[in-house]
Amino acid sequence: MIILNFIYCFVELNTLFILCNIFIDKKYGDLINGFTISLFSIINFLITQIYPNTLGTIFLVLFATIMCFILFQYKIKEIIFLSFIFFIVVGIISTITINIISLTSGLSSHELLNNSLIYLFGGIFNKLIPLVLVFSIRKYRKNNEIIEIQNIIIFFSLIIFLFIIIVAQYSLVLTIRDEKSRILSLLISLLLIIIFTIIVVILSKYNNLQKNSLTSQYNNNILALYKDYEINLIRNREELIMIKHDLKHHDQLFKTLILEKHYDKAISSINQLIEKTNSISSTVFSNNIVLDSIINNFITEYLNIKFTININTSLSLLDELDTCILFSNLLSNAAHSALKSDKKIIELIVLENENFYVIEVINSMEFEFIDINITSKRKNSNHGYGLKNIYSIIHKFKGNYHIDQTNHLFSFKILFPKGSIQNEKN
Prior knowledge:
The chain is an alpha+beta fold. It is built from 13 helices and five strands.
């Protein structure tokens, strides 16, 4: 019997883990994580069998806390949050379940507590809720991006609705004595489940279509931005060629004016040439046309921000579109933050060593965040997609990043292994 219970726990938790991945992450989970959470389920079962009361719940939460700390490396505040949510949610659901079935079936709470089906429902939810929370927060920490809350709401709505149907069906089974009525109630419950599932699928597809539309719109904006960068760069280079051509004529003019001692006219001509040259914001930082164009455009657009550029590589292994998306978003976020600060400074560092490309953007900030993963521009949907695009490029080239803040300076550092970029291009 104990072996059968172990198998039940293993299958149950793997099924729930796969459901979480399907609805939240849109892909199937790996067996290692499923096996890990199944072990948690088995120990959960043993604890609840040995201590089936409040003491067992306390032991279970302590065990879950240790698992979170060892396996998922959460911070203390995240462990406290998980434990608190575990206590509250499980307690609320258990209380509501017992009272609903007690009122609809006419049985006392004491009788229900001794019923094995209630233990079954309670056991499923005791595992499902912390599993979803652990998986969601773990996904957040891994990708450092906002979880798609719509998918989680749809997932919880489906589970809660199915749970209500099961509770109602169980209540009817307890009160209805006629066999035909029981079968009819069962068929009605199944029909409701099918209808609700269809509605959820339709809503999910509509949500995905809306998301794809926003993503496509943002990508079109990025392409338009890249086109503008290229046009500006071509125009600036044409102006430089014209100035270079005019310098030959100015050279002869300067010599003539100086020889004839028309010093005022010579100084005036020199000043005009300098003014014309300064109007062209095409400074070469990296010999990468796209990167130089992006930097020059930001320097021109944000004249009240002091830019410091330190680049010793052309980042030739990154293609043009990835370069445009990565640096335009990094500098855009930095500029919006720096504008609100007193110092108004941005420093861009792009270095290359034997094994890595190092990209770091440092900007001044108005105030320091309590949680550096939270942005103050949540209402701007494009900003959210900008962050997602940064993280997707980091993930694409198997890079790592580090976020830091000190003395009202915000730092976003990225490390790209050279081998991963070369493999991706090949």
